[in-house]
Amino acid sequence: QVQLVESGGGSVQAGGSLRLSCQASRSTLSFSTMGWYRQAPGKQRELVARISKSGISDVADSVKGRFTISRDNAKNTVFLQMNSLKPEDTAVYLCNAVTLAINYWGQGTQVTVSS
Question: What angle do CA 18, 20, 26 make, to 5 degrees?
Fold first, then answer.
């Protein structure tokens, strides 16, 4: 059973920064991709950023230039560095890992950005 544990969420003012962490119960290299999604109240879950096993990453247009995804394989951890946060970034952020077409999810961490 795969477990993904997120941390690093919180409340910040617009323009601030947060770094989210997602620690997996097994090697990050065992997943084809790992990433971060977010879901705001009343909205659909959306992809924020993901990184492949080979290290190729992509981010959503809405966060491009502000958010960066990275991975520490030695610590089985994926990070999401979020800078220049905006109120519209407020959401629950969920860690995702994919292997053999199976999606695993963390429990989510709340990010609240006030204006």
Answer: 165
**Span 30-51, pLDDT tens digits:** 999 999 999 999 999 999 999 9
> Can you give the pLDDT at residue 65?
97
Whole-number average pLDDT of the chain:
96
Which residues have a Cβ under 8 Å from the Cβ of 46 and sit 6 or more positions away?
37, 38, 39, 60
How many CA atoms within 13 Å lie on the side-chain side of 7? Answer: 4
Contact, 8 vs 18, CB < 8 A?
yes
Maximum Cα–Cα distance across the chain: 41
| 67 DSSP β-pair partners | 82
Between CA 18 and CA 100 the distance in angstroms is 31
Q: Which amino acid is at 8?
A: G
Give residue 98's pLDDT: 96
What's the token pair of residue 69? Answer: 């995804």
Q: 3-class SS at 93?
A: strand
